[in-house]
From TrEMBL:
Keywords: ATP-binding, Helicase, Hydrolase, Nucleotide-binding, RNA-binding. It comes from Cordylochernes scorpioides. The Q motif is unique to and characteristic of the DEAD box family of RNA helicases and controls ATP binding and hydrolysis. InterPro entries: DEAD/DEAH_box_helicase_dom, Helicase_ATP-bd, P-loop_NTPase, RNA_helicase_DEAD_Q_motif. This is ATP-dependent RNA helicase. RNA helicase. Belongs to the DEAD box helicase family. Gene3D superfamilies: P-loop containing nucleotide triphosphate hydrolases. It catalyses: ATP + H2O = ADP + phosphate + H(+). Residues 70-98 form the DEAD-box RNA helicase Q domain. Residues 101-242 form the Helicase ATP-binding domain. Its EC number is 3.6.4.13.
Amino acid sequence: MENKKHSNKKYPRKRKHSKKVHFYQPKRRKLEAENEIKELDKQLEKFYSIIQTVLYHSIRMLFQWNTAPENFEDFPLSQKTQRGLKDCNYVTFTSIQSKSILPALKGHNVWGKAKTGSGKTLAFVIPVLEKLYKEGWSKEFGVGAIILSPTAELAKQTYDVFNKVGRYHSFSIALVIGGGNKVKQEKERVGQISILICTPGRLVQHINENPDLRCDDLQMLGNCPMFTLYSPAVDSLDPIDT
């Protein structure tokens, strides 16, 4: 037998299929962890900021309601009322205002007396505006507040104060007094007015003759010369004397 000759041809070796190995990269992982921590810190910071703001205003509100305020800015009033007071340059309050506004804001019936020029009108204008604002009052609810005045002149003064201080509110305010031939015009609109400032005689006339005048949901009833604020939902009365 002939010996087989070995050829000099070289065949490539078969390579073994090796699995790819993913090496652990500590630096990259560390950076990712640091970024995650920073993002979490930002979210926590934002959350704590919101909590602090809520707590601050809550504590401030409690403080204002339970301590004697020093000026109108210290009263727990809506921004719309505060803007109206600021535009009218009302900064400090009188004795009747300091004693009556907070109880009225808390929902108490208030009766008080004070001399002319002591600020009685503003003392009941503010609680009326705030009450209707918190109730979200609109013309669909009918009349929300009635302020009685013995004379047309005093009713006009009250009407002016309501319009000046409540200029940023959306309430409709009407002056309903005797004199003139405006009864027919008033009948068409009086049932949709939020705040009525009126003399007793004209109010009685509308109650008797106007079926559109609804006072079923009346929130506040005020009397101008002898400072009185009455809420139908409250039975007690807090007398105030200055």
